[in-house]
Amino acid sequence: MARQLLQHCKKCGAWTLQRDCPHCDGIANAAAPIKWSPEDQRANIRRKMYDVESPEWLTTLPNLKTITESRKAIFEEE
Ligand SMILES: [Zn+2]
Hints:
By secondary structure, the chain is of the alpha+beta class. It has a domain at 43-77.
């Protein structure tokens, strides 16, 4: 499926909603890039859903090993 509805023929420049141009035998591509926003529009909803202010949520986060544990693991492999 095409990324967006409006397509633009590369060969004759016609506008269409199909991937194959109805005016010539050219291939039509998306007329413009997809709209995209770096802002997370649903961040508030997501934070409420995961209850990020609760202390229980903190325990679900992944933890790194301490530096001592990491060094120990490296030296034991060798
Ligand atoms: Zn065309």
